[in-house]
Structure formats: C-alpha cells, structure tokens
Amino acid sequence: ILEDYLLVEDAPLLEEMAEEDEELDLYNEMTFGLDRDSTEEDATKPLIPLETSPELAKGVAEETEAGEELEPGVAEQLEELGEHQEEGGMEVEVEQVSLELEEEEEELGTEEQEEDQEPCEEPNDLGDPAVMRAVQSKPTLESQDSAVLESRIGACWAEFGKEDMVAMDPAVWGSCPGSIPPHHVLEDKAILQVLERPPPSTNVALDFLGSPVQRGYGGSPRLKHPNLRLMSPKSFPQRFLQQTAGYASPTPFQPMSPNISSPSRPLAMHFGPMSPSLDPALFFSPSASGQLNLSTPSHMTQLHPQHQRILTQRQQQGGQAQSISPKKLWSPKVDPYAGLMTSKEKDWVIKVEMIQLQSENMDDDYYYQAYYHRLERKQVEEELLGGRSKQEPPKLVTPFIQKVETYDSVVRIAGSLGQVAVSTCYSPRRAIDAVHHALVEEAAGSHRLRALHRIEKLFLQLLEVEEAQRKTSLAPEKQQPCCQEQKSQEVEHIYQALQIRACSSEEEAEDEFLQLLCVRKGKKLTARLLPHLTREQAEKILLIITHHLPFLMKKDVLDESLPLLYSPLNEVVSGMTFSRLIEVLQEMTRPLPESPELPLAMALKNQFGISLLYSLLSHGERLLSSDMPLEPRSGDFETWTDTVFLVARELSQVPKASLVEPLFLPSNLLSLFCRYLDKQTIHHLEAKME
Amino acid sequence: MNYMPGTASLIQDIDKKHLVLLRDGRTLIGYLRSIDQFANLVLHQTVERIHVSKKYGDIPRGIFVVRGENVVLLGEIDLEKESDTPLQQVSIEEILEEQRVEQQARQESEKLKVQALKERGLSVPRADTLDEY
C-alpha cells in the first residue's frame, strides 16, 4: 500500500516543511475552519511530506482487519490528529475519523461521541469582530444516527482511485459520484463540493448531511481504488474529511442562531454544525458544472428572495439535471500549480461575498438588487399572463449573520507604523470605507485641497442623511418625527459647515463657499443639499449664487458644471415670493465695478446663466398672471418692469451667435414681453430666442 | 455567476490565464491563483507586457500579489486565441527603447500644448489638483 505514495528523500527538509505547514494549518484553520488545508497544500506540492505515523498505519491496518475492534485505535488516532483541531465541531472529528470505506459507522458514531465530549473553544480568536456570535457546535445526529453515515460513506468510497489522490485537489474528494452517472464527472479539479439539502425527514441536526441519493456532487474524476491510507498523517485524515458524513464539503453557510448566547468562536471557524433549529446549509459549487445544488435555508438568509428561490429551485432540479455545463477540455498537460486556492478558501470567499449581499443599504449591490427586481417583475407578469399560482417567495426572517453595529475594521496599535490588518474580514466594504474615512481626516496644505476635503466630508455626511431618511421612510409612522428632527439637525450642520456668507467681489476667491462652488463636486453637493434645506436657507444660496454669478461663470468655463445647479435652483425659484424674486433679479442687474457689462448680459452668454435668468423671469410672469396676492414692497413693480426692459434690451443687442441656448425655455416668456414691449421688438426677440 | 446570479465573482477565474490592467497603466498577464474578498489577486508566472503601437514585449516577473483597488479591469485569456494577434512580439530591450521614445514624444507634445494654452489664457489643472478623488 505504501508504494502508492511518493517517497521523499529529504527527511530534514520535510520536517521543516511540516513545521511550516503546521503554522499555516493553524492560520488556515482559524480563518477558514478545520485544518484541511495542510492536505491541500500538500497536494499542490510535487513532494508530499510523507510521514506516515506508525500509529496511523497501525490504526488503518487495524481497521482493515477488524470491525469494532478498531474503535480504540481510531480513537487514539483521533487524539493524535486532534492536535490542530480545536473545535468541538463534530464534523471535524468525524472527518478526521472517517478512514475507511468499510468502516462501520458505529465506530464513527462512537468516535464522534467521544469527540463530542471535548468541545473546545477556539482560544485565539482571529475572527472578524463583525461577527457577533458564533454558534457552539453541538453533537449532531450524525454521530448518533449511524444509518445515515453508512449509506453515504459507502457510496463515496466506492469511487476512490489512488492515482488521483496525490496530485489532485482534495476538494474533489468531496465529490461522490455514487449515484451520479459518469458523465457528471467533472474534470475541473478545482471544484468545490456540492451538498444537497437533505431530505426533510431527517432530523434537523443532521440537516447538513446530505442524502447520498440526492447528493449532487460535482463528481470526481473516477476514483477507483479505495486505498486511501497511508498518506501523511496530516493529509490522511483530511482527505477523508470530504467523505464524512455530514458535509463533506467545506464550510457550509451555517446560519447562526440568534438566540445562542455563547460566542465560542467566530464565524470563520464555524462551518460546523449549528444549533438544531437551523436548516441545512448548503454549498454551491462554483464550478462550471450545471449541477448547482445550492440552497440556503430560506429563513436563515437575507438573500434576495428571488435569489433564494433560484437556489432552491436549482437544488430541486439538481437531482434530475444533467451536467449542463460544457465540459471544459482540461488541457492535456496538467497544471501542477492548479488548486493552490483550496476549495475551502474558495468557499470562504464565496461566503464573504454572500454575506456582503445581505446589506441593508440599498446602494450596495445595485446590480444584484436590480437583477432580482427585474426577475421578480417578469415572474409577476408571467403569473398574470399565465395565471399560474403565485409562488410565494420564501420568507426572509432571521439574518444569517449578525453583524456588530460598531466595527473597528482598522486596528491601530500605539506606536505602530500604520494599521494592523485584521486577518478575517466579512465586511470588505466596511473595511474599505474605514480606510477611506481615515484618509479624509488628513489635514491638507493648500487651499484647494482643503476645499476638496471639505467637499468630500460634507458629501459623505449628506449621503448619510439621505440614507437615514430612506430608512425612516420605511420605518413605522410613529418613529418618523424624531428621525425627522435628527435629520434636520444634521442638515443644519452641513449647511453651517458650508460657511455661506456675504462677501465682496474682492474676496470672492477666498470665500469658503464660493471655493466649494468652483469645484464640480461642490456644485453637486450643493445641488443635492438644496432640496433638504429650509426655504430661507435655499433662497440664501440662490442669492449668493446670483450675486456672484459672473465669478462663478468665469470659473466654470472649463468644467461647465454649473448646469448641475439649475434643476434644484429652479425649484427654489418656483416657490419664491415676488419680493424675494425681485431681490434676486436685482443681483443680475446691478452694475459691476470691473466691467461695463451687466451680469445679466454675461448670463446670456452662459448656459446656466441664461437658464437661471429665464427661470426667474418666468416665475415672475407666472406670479403676475396668477390671481395670487403678491404683497410687493414699494418699488418692486418698478424694478420688475425695469428688469424686463433691461433683459429685452440686452437680448436684442447681443449677437445671436453669442446667445446660448438655455437648458429650458419657459413658454411664458413671450407673453411676459408682450406685456411691456411692442410687436416689432417681440418678433425680434422671438427670433433670437428660438 | 451561476451560483449567485446578479453578482460577479472571480472564483470561476481561478487557475486561468488572465490579463490584468492596473491603475498605473501596467498590463500583467498571468495565471490567477488566488483571490480574496477585496479582489486582491495572486498572479502566477506573470509577465508584464509593454505595448508600443503594434509591438509588444514581455518581461517575466514571476509571482505578483496585486492589491484589489489597483486593478482597473481583468479578463480571461482564451488560450486558443492568444496567439492570434496582429501585434508583433519583440525583445525586451527593443520594447523598452520604443517605450522610452514614445514617452519622450508624448512629454514634448504635452509641453507644447500647455504652452499654447497658457498663451491663450487657459490653464489646464494638473492631475494632482483634479476635483474628484
């Protein structure tokens, strides 16, 4: 049997490698779960550390000989190999133990039970602080219900082949071709295991065990020879890990039960049995195989319901579906470095990706959300057309992972040069955002950079306000008033931070608010903020902008971003009183110290300027032609008429080539002019304005 | 994509040859061996490919670990179609020389442009003072 394996000449080198492996194993175990990884690393190395421990060999030998007698030997083995296994998780032990095909499950059962009695807590918690709880693993039924174990193992073991063991990715081990027709066999060695949802009749705790019949394994390369023994001590049990009853595949998403109060270890570690109230977690094979037997317990996840449905459907179809994916021709020369990323690691990444999908923020995962919305809409349409019975989406009730509210993804150790990376991160977005916030805090030297920093900071605050508002609009009625108040406070805060104040034309370049307005994003910020402001605040901004319009237009020559402000300012204008309107219009008609040209004339040559002007005039005309009492101040009407004449004059004087087309041409301007001007002038203006 | 429709993941790309474009403009070609949740990449047998007009040169670089945020885009290379290119491969020395010449030409034309704009009273903001991050 031994000759099936590679022999390594270099014993000392091997020892070193083995030591490194141990450390890596520990790290991997902490991040990804059980230490399957040493095996997988071994697999990619051409040399396989080959230390068949005598006990192991003995254990195996014993097993092959006898049945029940093996128990003690195996148990012993377990203790040996258990050094890296700190988890009390059943499946780990089970996996470690599943040595032989022919092994009676009573043995396993016993082994597991023994292991059950040594629950361990993960001492070094490298887990993601975002994970609030971890479920303590409990003894699972698999240890008690031997019948299930047996059938599964039996099926799997029949397929092993020795030639594949050495080079291939242990991930493939998980595939149990048992009941799967040969053409399902996937050639892609980097395939993850696929576990199917066990039949509902099984005990809940057993849930993550799949029924062998349904098990839609990706299929392994045909494994013929059951001689899996005598691999290196570390690798040996791990190879069998996959075959265990339970879930051979790495890391199922095991949703955490919210009422378990003992966080024994972070989620990272826990891809293990969960509390009995949980449903089977599943795994999906990211391989190209069409057999995606993927389903997550519906009440456990917050995946989009449509996604959920797809997963369950796939899982149901899994049994019947033939391998849909085109069998990629594996290149004839085997890639010796393939499988560097183990299936466990892949699963982990996928898991993090799935966790990320469960975000309360509507802005995250726009494409994911949009995809499912569309799918849902289509289905609804189909239902309406086809008159099919409505498919009830699975109810999303409990969160699959509870995220801690405050999350320090960035760890700062006093005296260190920078940030310490946290080894596991379930919320990459939060981590990235944390870094972003850190950056923005830096004090910047130049004026312009400071302005940019302010804009960024205020923009983020505004986004938070809008986010909060979105949430409160979904919240129940009674909570809304207090949230509204908080919102107005924060909006007020942002408004104050803008530092809007009157300033003379000499000070324009230095004025804080105007500096912001010279930047495109600053205009965007203002435009986005305007709808949230009080009328007074918004009108103040309009006044400032109009007052400094020449300056702003000059600064905007390259960027041409002023039109961003048109829409919100237009809204502000439409709500103004007549007097206020006159005040604003006066800004446009006041003479400028540096130039003979009126601001109004300059505005005609600028798209934003002319649009704003037209908007103001249009509103005035609307007010005048309506029946509403205007309450003008003395002199308002005169100013108004003067302004109209001025505009008409400038319009007629400006060459048509310089006249810019406005963003919007209000329809009542001509009627406005009709009031005051003669026909000839009107025709002239009309021609100009077209 | 098949197990998480509506999302994208690099899991399916593992162990395949990829072309990666970085933010600094470099083009890397290598086998994608490992990823993480930030889309940090581990590229194996990586080659940095320098393109100058119709020529290109490859500089073997070994193993790269690329921080995810620095990737502009990446895509799988179809091994069958890989050699089917109108571009001509040249030696490293040659391509580096070509690149130097190209850089020089670009810098000169840029200088002229800035000068011309200055004369007309326009100033193009330098990259470090651009508005948006």
What count of helical segments of chain A does DSSP give? 27
Find the CATH topology of chain B: SH3 type barrels
Q: Indicate the structural class of chain A.
A: mainly alpha
Arithmetic mean of pLDDT of chain A: 64
- Major sheet of chain A, described briefly? 2 strands, antiparallel
Largest sheet strand order of chain A? 1-2
Return Rg of chain A in Å: 36 Å
Count of domain modules of chain B: 1
User: For the largest interface in this structure, which chains are involved and how many residues does each contribute?
Assistant: A-B, 52 and 30 residues
Taking pLDDT < 50 over at least 5 consecutive residues as the criterion, the unreliable ranges of chain B are none
Biggest sheet details of chain B: 6 strands, mixed
3D shape of chain A: elongated
What is the β-strand count of chain B? Answer: 6
Question: Helix proportion of residues of chain B, in percent?
Answer: 10-25%
Q: Summarize the amount of helix of chain A as a percent range.
A: 40-55%
Order of helices and strands of chain B: EEEEEEH
| CATH class category name of chain B | Mainly Beta
Could you write a compact summary of the structure shown?
Chain A is 49% helix and 1% strand.
Describe this structure in words.
The complex is a heterodimer of chains A (690) and B (133). Chain A is an all-alpha fold. Chain A has a domain at 576-689. Chain A is built from 27 helices and 2 strands. A two-stranded antiparallel ribbon of chain A has the order 1-2. In chain A, strand 1 (411-412) and strand 2 (419-420) form a beta hairpin. In chain A, helix 3 (54-65) runs antiparallel to helix 4 and helix 18 (520-529) packs parallel to helix 21. Chain A is elongated and about 105 Å long. Mean pLDDT of chain A is 64; it is low at 1-6, 35-301, 319-330 and 393-400. Chain B is an alpha+beta fold and 133 residues long. Chain B has a single domain (7-120), classed as Roll (SH3 type barrels), CATH 2.30.30. Chain B has one helix spanning 92-119, and strands at residues 17-22, 27-35, 41-52, 55-66, 71-76, 88-89. Chain B has a 6-stranded mixed sheet with strand order 5-1-2-3-4-6. In chain B, a hairpin with a 2-residue loop joins strand 3 (41-52) and strand 4. Chain A binds chain B through residues 190, 284-288, 290, 292, 294, 304, 307, 310-311, 331, 335, 337-341, 345-346, 349-350, 352-354, 356-357, 365, 367-372, 425-426, 428, 431-432, 446, 448-449, 452, 456, 519-521, 557-559, and chain B through 2-9, 11-12, 14-15, 31, 33-38, 42, 44, 69, 79, 122, 124-125, 129, 131-133. Chain B: GO terms for molecular function: mRNA binding. Chain B: One of its GO terms (cellular component) is ribonucleoprotein complex.
